[in-house]
Amino acid sequence: MNARDEESSSRELKIAAAIDDRTPLDWENELARDPTLAGLMSGLRNVEKIASAHAKITEELVDDFSGFIGTVLLHYRIVEWIGSGSMGAVFRAQDEHLPRQVAIKVVLKKSLADRTLGEILLREARIACSINHPNIATVLDVGENERCVFFVMEFVQGRTLAGLIEEHPLPASVAVEYGIQIASAIQAAHDAGVVHRDLKSSNVCVTKGGLVKVLDFGIAVKASPSILVDTTAAESTYGPAGMTAGTIAYMAPEMLRGQPADKRSDIWALGVTLQEILTGTRPFSGETRTEVERAILREDPAPLPASIPKPLRSVIARCLKKDPTHRYQHAAEVRAALEPIRDSPAAPAARPRPWIVALGLGAAAIIAGLILWPPSSRPPLSPHSILVFPSRNESGVAEQQFLADGLTDQLINTFARLSHVSVKSRTTSYAVAKESKPLPRLAQEHGFDMMLESSVTRTADRVRVNVQLVDARSDRQIWAESYERPLREILTLDREIARGVTGSLKMRLTDAEQAGLAPAPPVDFPVYQAYVLGRSLKAERRYARAIESYSRATRLDSTFAPAYAGLADCYTEMAYYRELAPAEALSRAAAAATRALRIDSTQGTAHLALAYVHGFQMDWKGAKAELDLAREDEPGSPEVWYGLADYLGAHGRAGEEVAAMERAVDLDPLSIRYTNELGLAYLNAGRVADAAAQFRRVEKDGRSDEARRAHAYAARCLALQGKSEEAIESLRPAAGSRATPYEEEELAYALSSAGKKSEALRVLARLASMGRGIASPLAIAAAQLAAGEREPAFATLSRAAADRDPRLIWLGVDQRFDSIRGDPRYAALMRSMGLEPAA
Amino acid sequence: MESTTLLIRRIWQGDPRAREQLVRSYFPIVKRMAHGRLPARARGLVGTDDIVSITLTKALQHIDTFEPRREGAFLAYLRQILLNEIRSQIRHANVRPVAGELDEDLPADGASPLEELVGRDLMERYESALDQLTPEQRQAVILRIEMGFSHQEVADALGAPSPDAARMIVARALARLAELLSESP
Question: Interface pTM (ipTM) of the complex?
Fold first, then answer.
């Protein structure tokens, strides 16, 4: 580098440093001093441009936004900036008098062209404060200080209609539903003497529950001042010239002509919005403002596709009549015209539930092993039968799906604790969510009369939940609410929601139930995360990993009772499915359950686990006591009813067993495991045909484990009905597939019943070769008995009793053993299990 | 602020509190970055916060594979994820081209506030010029020009010995950037 180059380079650096320090530069002068910079000058200018732009943005942020954060306007503490428009910014704020969030729209006085406008805005907003309607984001307060004018509004979480439409146009049914809600909002405002004047899709917000909220009533600051002035008869020099094309697209012809806006201008805007919802485009468009104006004034609206129901097209056409006297004169008329379209039988499927098919992976994993048959229409069990629709993860991040799944589970569990509510189980909820049928039909088919929908978002260390309770038969909203809490209080959210729901239904709660809905102790997020993961792993029967997750939760927080209860639950199931030696599994289950109950005596899952521990140990008194406690804690839990059914069956009370199992199935009608168990309960009660019907339903699930189990039991029904040959035929394994132990067990029984003893013995030998503990001793003994092998049958049963095989507890009710009830060895076996032998 | 490198180490070791702390520390910074980059059209009612959340979550998802030697590198990494996220949001918003042109407050193509100020073309050239800088220079530009860090802060983030050293790195980075952004070949 020569001296000149060096000099130039150092000058260049100096300029760069000046840019860096934001020292104003005289470019001409710099160039005059060093002509060699000419080539680089444009680049330096560009760098300066970029640096200034960044600085400007940062300054804006500091000036207009950060300055407000943390300050208090009236009694609202500004928490965070939400968004900005041309004249002001919107903040989220905390009401310091009431426990609620609000949105505050701040309009800086410097951006108001003159004081009159500020006064008009305030006057309008004060009127708007008097409007109270569910479809209007209520203006709660207004005020001003030396810097700004501000409007305090209800905090609405959701998406603007404009944003939704941008993704894709919405179906006619949705447009109608939204149209009705917007029309209701407009009517309420008009009744209060407030005209919106700036209704458009970006001023309409839809909560995730499908509730429409019209924003900015009375505070449409972006509307032309002249329009605002029209109703106040003040003079103004402003005209529509200052407006942007975006707003013009919604303007009625009379407004473009400079005439005053009135109610009918809002009706025009509603027509524009409806067409936009349906087609994704506005009825009057153009490349430039002039073109749009010309279209509005002279042209017909863009035609709507013929696929849109004719009555709906007519409603929109009438909203868009150029002459205001030819339009609907009141928003109530629009609503009245839309309602029959919604309620007509030909109307397309129900309500907007865009996420009904869009559940995340977490949900899919949980419902593995489900069957979707058309269930019989059952009347709801309790006065209030609720389906908790799987909560929607609104964060857009798959990783946070577990938050939504966790909330769904929590809500189901919490409602299961209430005696006047019958809540559908998790299996049913996730299965219903996969069906794309109108809600009233789903409600009828699955026997629920209300649906609770929710969505979850997490921002940093807070969690937001929107909920809506819907009357499932009419598809109308009963109640809606938004909650926002620190993440640590996530376990309290479901209880708060339950309080909201029971309150809205004016439900009477017992003292114990009320206590159960009191705030839960706070939980650290990682603990909660580990716990929820454990729960979903357990639902997938991945016990080892579930235990790992629950243990992590207890390590992080040794006072977190639900995780201990979860551990107990895992161990009892492992004992049942023989994934761990029962003695070891049960002692671990007992330890975990005891620990859980020491921390929180109302952990129903822990009581249930202890009931199983006692049951496996043939301590029936202990089992019953724990079952009663579990029922007290969670009267609506299908698991508890299933546990009770087991207890009743073991005690030979087959009729009651059926009733308890029916209750479990009612609570969880889509659980194929319970349906199979109900079939077995029917068999115990001697109701073979009813049993066969249950098994046939489950068989439709194809190749799942439970379906193959059902297939095997169906064959037993045939054998019991004297159709052994048919049973044998049905159990012949399909080419290339291996029989399951269940199928082999039933094949042995069918062969024995058909008198094919040697074949039956061959099958039994195969079963024995599968290893101890695999085949059910009860099934083997039943086949041996049917083959006339009474002594070996007793030997099998005695061995199982010595092993404390839990499957033996059905001995008292299983009709395949009716022939040995008189044998003293049968009575001895029963007594060895602590059970009274049946007569 | 606890050293970012240390926080990331703790995250590697499975300390969930470190995760939370990282998110808390970087949320406002990423939000500031997002503010100038996100066209109003791609921004919903709560869009900015959501995008910031998504950015941080994605960053944490891949934190195992990321080894920052300095905070500056981590910020550049966050910025890249943020820009990708914003791009995908814009793609999403562009599904409806016709009516979008009439949206209020927005230039025809849904430009970001920065693009509005300097023009889309220059912003694109700037982004590609940034790519051609050395990592240290790139980080210096982001920290100083985009984030408005003081020279002391830039020095800390880059591991430079003094504010003056940071000043020098920034000036050199800007000079190089100018070269890349010159109109003449």
Answer: 0.78
